[in-house]
Design goal:
This protein has three helices and four strands. By secondary structure, it is α+β, with helices and mostly antiparallel strands. Strand 1 and strand 2 form a beta hairpin. The radius of gyration is 14 Å and the shape is globular.
Length: about 140
Amino acid sequence: MEITADNPCPCRALDADQASYAQCCQPFHEHRASGQVLPATAEQLMRSRYSAFVLGLADYLLQSWHETTRPAELLLDEDLHWEGLDIVKTRSGGAQASRGVVEFTAHYSQDGQRGSQHEVSTFVRENGAWFYLDALY
């Protein structure tokens, strides 16, 4: 999927506050490798990872995945269309925390069928950068 900086950010498609991609996840996507612009919270990383799935940014997903749980490669399903993200609850993971937990539901469609993925994800911050660690369930 292609999105311009002025489009609503994919992670905010279901929110009343539809920040633009440029105001939300784009800076994280463009600057993760250099470390210049990083998510300040676990929820921001979760949102940026969801947007990366929507946009097919496998490199960003791998870069933001903790090295102890990261797969060697990531193949994204092009037939899966992500349609929105609901953050259910965020536990810890604030700007001063070193660990975070974010519960979310991601909605999708595939082959004309709608579905959702519910997950409680854990995150860890190392040297100022948040990483996805794993899913509790």
